[in-house]
Amino acid sequence: MENCLFCKIAEGQVPAKIIYQDEDVVAFEDINPQAPHHILLIPRRHIASMSDLTLEDGPMLALLFITADRLAKKLGLGERGYRFVTNVGPDAGQAVFHLHFHLLGGRKFSWPPG
Ligand code: 5GP
Ligand code: ZN
Questions:
Q1: What is the pTM of this model?
Q2: Residues 6+ apart with CB under 8 A from 102
Q3: What residue ranges line ligand 1, CB within 6 angstroms?
């Protein structure tokens, strides 16, 4: 999609520290990390947010979640754990309208979140 920052990152038009990519999924470091490890996982295909998912996105989502867990284990977070979240809309503070999941790890997170 034109003028979408994360589409541009997926297409290599905007630089990012890519951690992993395949046909369907791209993972890259967040530019403003909120934890020692902060990676964003996105589908290559433009989807604005979780609100726009359909049942057909099931296999892509499974791949995205499995990739996140694999990356977390690679980063040494298998034992201590991590957080995997997506923000939807203004109350959650969604700033980029291309579906993305935050993989956060390397420190203790509070619950409930702020
Ligand atoms: P949201 O608030 O929409 O859930 O998260 C958007 C995330 O994208 C933020 O954590 C922000 O730091 C990150 N971000 C914004 N612009 C860029 C960018 O140009 N490159 C990278 N790598 N991350 C970005
Ligand atoms: Zn996009």
A1: 0.98
A2: 30, 34, 38, 39, 40, 83, 84, 85, 86, 87
A3: 5, 16, 28-32, 87, 93-96
